[in-house]
Amino acid sequence: MKLLEPLEELLPLRNRMVFLATHLGYCEEGFVSDRLVRFYQERAKYQPGLIIVGGCFTEHLGMSSPSMVGISNDAHISGLGRLVDSIHQFGVPVAAQLYHAGRYTHSLVIGEQAVSASAVKCRLTRETPRALNIDEIENTIRNFGLAAKRAKKAGFDAVEILGSAGYILNQFLAKATNKRDDEYGGDFQSRAKFPLEVVYAVRKAVGPSYPVMYRISGEDFIPEGVTLDDNKILVPQLVEAGVDILDVTGGWHETRVPQITMDVPRGHYAYLAEGLAEVVDIPVIACNRINSPTIAEKILSRGKVDLIGMSRAFIADPAFPEKVRTGRTKIIRPCVACNQGCLDRVFLNKPVTCILNAEASFENVRSIPYTDSSEKIAVVGAGPSGLEAARVLAERGFEVHLFESRKQIGGLLRFAARTPKRGEFLSYITYMKRELKRLGVKIHLNSPCTAEMLEQGQYDSIFLATGFIPVLPEIEGLESPKVLSVIDLLENQNIHLGQTVILGGNHLGCSAALFAISRSDSVQIIESSSRIGDDIGLTSRWIFIKALEEMNVVIQKEVDVNQYTGNYLMLSRDGSTSMLLADTLIVAGSLERIDRLATGLEKLDLDFIFLTENNNAMNLLSTIHSAYKIASEYKR
Fold first, then answer.
1. Residue range 607-627, pLDDT digits in tens
2. Domains in the chain and their CATH numbers?
3. Long-range contact pairs involving 223-227 (C-beta distance under 8 Å, separation at least 24)
């Protein structure tokens, strides 16, 4: 691809794909680790146009986790240089994102009260920061400049100032968090003084010809936040202060407008980047929920933005850029925007990985060893674990036969995709279908397995991923034909349910309620505990609850069910009893592994390997990663 205008002289890029800064949680007290280096090496190998590393905290007060990348003192330079060299060996330019959390860090992390523009309690940390005084503001600005100088010394090709997601630059810009009455508060222009001075300091530190990027929330989506129109006033000033490239995202971490979850349409927020591109004459990056070449090309074809920023797409499939270049887009492992392996783990202070890519973050310890064995292997069950095991075993060179009792592959994942706005899961099933065909896996659909069949097939090894069945609680009356499991519900999409009651407010129950609402006169969830959706990821739970509220699903918590009469539920709470009409009762309890085939194999004295555990039924990360590990380490 021709070098991109107008980036030829500023920052030559091979293509328009930018791997955005992503907090991975791989560092040790801010220092670059082998794990971090291997992660980025694996992505650089396939040559995206640009990699942005970060966030790199500019000072101790700006650190939100010691597992972040540090650039706050000269001791960090050596490790950063090693990281840069490991990326440069593949000819890929790399930028350092300069990060300061402000009030988005916990006092327990930094050992003192967090700082911000003003002492406004933070919804995310549930702590109140202290306001920086003028001397501290000047020191914070100076630290951004010093961090930029370190980045340049370490060999980074550019720096990116983080002015999005509700971090410190946002906290000065937004009226919601800036209540100051000095030169850094008041009207919008005064509130913009701090971020503009940060840009000036960074530009002065790196010199006139070094690329400076700025990541901005095109719209904050919070009350008294900065709007797109506000930013159209700000960004020309940022350019004048020294910004060369604009990287446009949206929202804060506390925003109650979904930004990157599965329910957000692909490419939905490109309009923010396009809106700001109208008022500046520098390259602009569009991002948020762009996970496919088709969406990226559609955005670029409008001619308003210059580059496409992605993060989770590269975590899910490091080879994304090469597959695009070589026209193999149909075998890109998709990001399904579930957040379970990435953002959810960030908020739990755990290293980032990917539910669908078991090698992500384990590049230095996991791989698929090839074997020239002619072993014939049976994998029973084409749910997530069976699909992954079949893929890995086939990659290793074994002859793999995959058996599925239903007419389609996917298992519980296919059912999950039928829940409103959860259809992204189908893209993974489609990908796996193509991968297994490419690898020569023999797929046998509509093929319930018996122990005798497997014995006759003379398989060298048998892997079981036979799925799960719902466990009915010990409540009188659940043998009624009006009682359905969640799987029954999803399999019978065309029935009218009448007054529907969901027994259980877990992930299954919430999903069932969202699915049932269009087929029911009313829907209620009955939950015995004080919370619903506790097994849903942190960054998605609130979206489920919001959707339930918008669809008028009634939720009753701390309620026990004593009996179902076939028409009414007998409920008890706080010593009182009541009756609730239920034309249809859907049980959303725990799931139990189906062990019937295993019992038959044991009777025939045939060895087998389980791919699933009972406690992993609804945990895709554990399910797929466990199957990968078992299949990649398998030795007869």
1. 999 998 766 667 899 999 999
2. 17-346 (3.20.20.70), 376-461+613-632 (3.40.50.720), 483-589 (3.50.50.60)
3. 223/176, 224/174, 224/175, 224/176, 225/174, 225/175, 225/176, 225/252, 226/170, 226/173, 226/174
